[in-house]
Structure formats: structure tokens, C-alpha cells
Design goal:
With about 475 residues, the protein is of the alpha/beta class. Helix content is about 30%, strand content about 25%. Strand 12 and strand 13 form a beta hairpin. Bound molecules: flavin-adenine dinucleotide (FAD).
Length: about 475
């Protein structure tokens, strides 16, 4: 291989592999370096895809057990095979993995397996992932760092499946269903993994140090989600901070914690899953060799064009912080490459990155929450439409949740949409499109929505905001 490239991408997660394909489409001679044999990064191997596969499988079981009878469907004997569920998940991951490898080949992107670390501002050392022995040097004109993130652990602990203290990475590879799983962290990952194992029979306890779960979303979503999870027997303990985690015996661990009012508690389970956040993964990059600047928390610092302190080296995705989401990483990758080739792409609107939680029902949100609108001292209207008023929600049987639209009181511009309900993940895109085009709620009210669909909730909420009444509420 002639190893001088226009662009070298480090990391093959959604940020990295999408950047590499776009670069090749735009005529750059491109290479990608990945530490693991498998491509796709956290998202494909231990994140979005395995968790959604397990969420889907466990949801079908949950619905068959709890909801199908209302449709007149009964099973004489209903059971699941956990190994088959995990094998299916592995197969889904493997297929997508092969798909990414195919895309690398199709786009003539050279793939280097190993660890990339900076020797100079134009040369990377490629070392073997196992032995850490240097294999070769790769030269580049431009580089995009897309090395992602790793799960955060308490400083006094290590993730260790033998000691039953696990992160999401181990959770999606478990060989048994924990009888009792204690989850520390009531954010997106904690709620999704808790839902999977709850549906498969685990007793779940979620510990959250804030006074509510999913605390960075609209308050109304966290309240409704808590109610729904508690209805499925998930125990949620808020305002509770963990002080220690102890191994009791070869099957049990204990979590010692203190409520904010000072009361202490000890909870015992079979595994403890920490989902308390993720940290940037810059180990091995050799950032110090070329003095790339990082924040106090270790995120790579970039300017508005995603350039690091070295102009020809860009950084994108989880490693630069912000919303740690696959679609944010992808958009940044596209931007960085288009900037490199001088296309002057339009900036990503960071205020309109949708967030989704794939629980049942799903939660999805874009734009400002009511708390943020209040903090920003903006006069606003709110339209809230309960899902149960929709014909489609009645026919499917999932009537939980609502859609909440926030619009500017004077201009009527839509400022935020927050949904909890079946298919919220797909529904949120109507809000994203509307908000990217700076629609008013009247615009949405006047658009014909198909009946019966869940999207009618948008029209109803828009009418509420626009003229304080709606047809069905
Ligand atoms: P990553 O996907 O982390 O990829 C980084 C890659 O770089 C890795 O393959 C790593 O091996 C490689 N690498 C690191 N250092 C080097 C080096 N020096 N040399 C060579 N290679 C290196 N996001 C969503 O949008 N939707 C979801 O539903 C969702 N669900 C999630 C569920 C879970 C359980 C988890 C943990 C995360 C989830 N996420 C989800 C977040 C999403 O996975 C990340 O935001 C996304 O993967 C970030 O992409 P990235 O390209 O920045 O990095």
C-alpha cells in the first residue's frame, strides 16, 4: 500500500466510517484505522444496535405476555430462549458489520487494523492492538479523530463481570438474566437496559442521584416515564447517591447509598450496572506528541469547524463531547469532510439534535424544554395532546403518553416538541423538519395529516398552540 493519504480517519464508529465514505465520494484518497477487527464502533458493537435488538426482542415478549390478549390473541405456553435472543442480536451486529466492510471496499477506502497514534502533525504510527508493537507509518494531509468514548466508572471501582460490576458493554453480552439488577444512573442507557431485563424477568432497581430520572429532558417526560416504569414494577430511587459497592458473595453485590436528606440505604442484587456517563477515549492517540488541546474532562477541543488546535486535524463525535449520539457523530463527520474539501457546508444546528429513548412507549424530544424556555424568559404557549385521544393509539392499544408542543407566544414559532408514546422515535422527525424550517404551529395545523395515525397528535397540539382549542381534546 502507498500510505500517503489525503485523509486518514481514526476510529470506525458512526462518526468515522461515515466521514470516510463521504471523503471518498468527494474524491479524497482515504484510509480508516480501527483498533478492533470489527468495524462500527460503540454504536454497532456494544451500543445502539445491540441494545435496540434486545429491546425489540424483549418488547415482543412483553407485548405477547401483557397486551396481546386484549386483541384476542392467546398463547397456550409462552416462553423465550435467552440464548436465541442473544444469538439473534449477534447476528444483527454481524450483518451490519459486514455491510460496513462492504461499504469500505466499494468506496475504495483502505482499512488498517490497529491503533493509530500521532507521531507528527502529518504522520501516524500504526501499532498492533494486542502487542502494541509498531507495524508501520501512515502519512496524511488531513486527519479526523473519531475515537469515541468509554463507560465512566467510579474512581474506586473497575468494571469486572466476575465481581458483578458491569457497564453497558458487559450488559449487552450477559449470558444469564440477573434475578435482581441494580442500575446506577437513570439516564437513557440505564432506562433502556433496565427495560430489557425487566421484560425478561429481572427485578430492576434504578438509583438516580438527581431528583428525577432523564433529568436533562422536559420535566413532564421524566414524570410520565417514571410512572410508566413503576407500573411495570421497576423500582426507582431518586435523590440517592451511591457511596460504596461491595461484593457480598459469589452471587451478590450490595450498593450502599445515601438519600439527600441523609438517610442511608443498602440494596442487594446479583449485578450492579453503572450507567453514569461516558468519557472521551483518547488513550493511545499520542495527543501530547503534537500538543492537541483537551478540556479538563479530556474531551478534544475543537473550533466551530471541528478543527483541533492543529488546523489539518479535525475531531468529531463522542470524543469532542456535547450530545453523545450516533447521529450527532455522523453529522459532524459529514461537516468536517465537506469543510476539508472547501465546500463551506452549513453548520449543524446543535439545538435541534433529537434525543430518543427506546423504552415502551418511546420517548423523543427536540428543541427547548419548558424549563429551558422559562429560563430563557421566552413567552410561550403549550399544546399537550394525550395519546389516548388518537384513533390509532386506540386501535394499537398503546394509549400511554402525550405529545407536548411549545411555541413562541408572539411569533407562534415552534420551539420544542416532547413526546412519550408508541413510535415517538419516528414521530419526532416531523418536529425536527418543522423546526429546521422555523415553522409556526399554524403551519403544522394547516398541513393535512393522514388518519388514523399517531402524527395527528402534532396537528392537534399545533391547533391548541395556535388558537387554544383543538378538535379532539
Ligand atoms: P465510537 O462509536 O465510540 O467509535 C470509536 C471507534 O474508534 C471505536 O471502534 C474504537 O475502537 C476506535 N478507536 C479508538 N481509539 C483508537 C485508536 N487510537 N486507533 C484506532 N481506533 C481507535 N446513540 C444513538 O444515537 N442512538 C442510540 O440508540 C444509542 N444507544 C446507545 C446504547 C448504548 C448501550 C451505548 C453505550 C451508546 C448508545 N448510543 C446511542 C451512543 C452512540 O453509540 C455513540 O454516540 C456513538 O457510537 C459515537 O460514535 P463515534 O464515532 O464518536 O465513536
Amino acid at each position: 500500500m502507498n500510505n500517503l493519504y489525503d485523509l486518514v480517519v481514526i476510529g470506525s464508529g458512526p462518526g468515522g466510517y461515515v466521514s470516510a465514505i463521504r471523503a471518498s465520494q468527494l474524491g479524497l484518497r482515504t484510509a480508516i484505522i480501527e483498533k478492533y477487527q470489527e468495524l462500527g464502533g460503540t454504536c454497532l458493537n456494544v451500543g445502539c444496535i445491540p441494545s435496540k435488538s434486545l429491546l425489540d426482542s424483549s418488547k415482543y415478549f412483553f407485548l405477547a405476555k401483557n397486551n396481546y390478549h386484549s386483541h384476542g390473541i392467546f398463547f397456550e405456553k409462552l416462553f423465550f430462549d435467552f440464548k436465541k435472543i442473544m444469538d439473534r442480536k449477534n447476528e444483527v451486529v454481524r450483518n451490519i458489520n459486514n455491510g460496513i466492510k462492504y461499504l469500505m471496499k466499494k468506496n475504495k477506502i483502505d482499512l488498517y487494523q490497529g491503533i493509530g497514534s500521532f507521531k507528527t502533525e502529518n504522520i501516524l504510527d500504526l501499532t498492533d492492538s494486542e502487542s502494541l508493537q509498531k507495524k508501520e507509518e501512515i502519512q496524511f494531509k488531513y486527519c479526523i479523530i473519531s475515537t469515541g468514548s468509554k463507560p465512566l466508572c467510579f474512581p474506586y471501582l473497575n468494571f469486572d463481570i466476575k465481581n458483578r460490576i458491569i457497564s453497558s458493554t458487559e450488559a449487552v453480552h450477559l449470558k444469564e438474566i440477573p434475578k435482581k439488577l441494580i442500575i446506577i444512573g437513570g439516564g437513557i442507557i440505564g432506562l433502556e437496559l433496565g427495560s430489557i431485563f425487566n421484560r425478561l424477568g429481572s427485578k430492576i432497581i434504578i438509583i438516580e442521584t438527581m431528583d428525577k430520572i432523564i433529568s436533562n429532558m422536559d420535566d413532564s417526560l421524566s414524570k410520565e416515564m417514571q410512572k410508566i416504569l413503576e407500573k411495570s414494577s421497576i423500582q426507582i430511587e431518586t435523590s440517592l447517591s451511591v457511596t460504596n459497592i461491595l461484593k457480598e458473595n459469589h452471587e451478590e453485590i450490595s450498593v450502599v447509598a445515601k438519600y439527600h436528606d441523609g438517610k442511608k440505604i443498602k440494596l442487594t442484587g446479583n449485578y450492579c450496572l453503572l450507567s453514569i456517563g461516558r468519557i472521551p477515549y483518547t488513550k493511545y492517540l499520542g495527543l501530547e506528541n503534537i500538543r492537541i488541546e483537551t478540556s479538563k474532562k479530556g474531551f478534544i477541543l475543537v473550533n466551530d469547524d471541528l478543527q483541533t488546535s492543529i488546523d489539518n486535524i479535525y475531531a468529531i463525535g463522542d470524543v469532542v463531547g456535547g450530545k453523545m449520539l450516533a447521529h450527532k457523530a455522523e453529522e459532524e463527520g459529514l461537516y468536517a469532510v465537506e469543510h476539508i474539501v472547501g465546500q463551506k457546508p452549513s453548520k449543524l444546528n446543535y439545538d435541534l439534535i433529537p434525543s430518543v429513548i427506546y423504552t415502551y412507549p418511546e420517548v423523543a424530544s427536540v428543541g427547548q424544554s419548558e424549563n429551558e424556555v422559562q429560563k430563557n424568559k421566552i413567552a410561550y404557549n403549550i399544546g399537550i395532546v394525550p395519546m389516548k385521544i388518537l384513533g390509532r393509539a386506540r386501535t394499537s392499544g398503546c394509549t400511554d403518553g402525550f405529545l407536548k408542543m411549545i411555541s413562541h407566544k408572539n411569533t407562534d414559532e415552534i420551539l420544542g416538541v416532547h413526546i412519550i408514546g408508541d413510535h415517538a422515535a419516528d414521530m419526532i422527525m416531523e418536529a425536527s423538519v418543522a423546526m429546521e424550517f422555523r415553522s409556526s404551529s399554524e403551519d403544522i395545523y394547516r398541513i393535512c395529516h393522514p388518519h388514523p395515525t399517531l402524527s395527528e397528535a402534532f396537528k392537534e397540539a399545533a391547533q391548541l398552540n395556535f388558537e387554544n382549542r383543538s378538535i379532539h381534546t
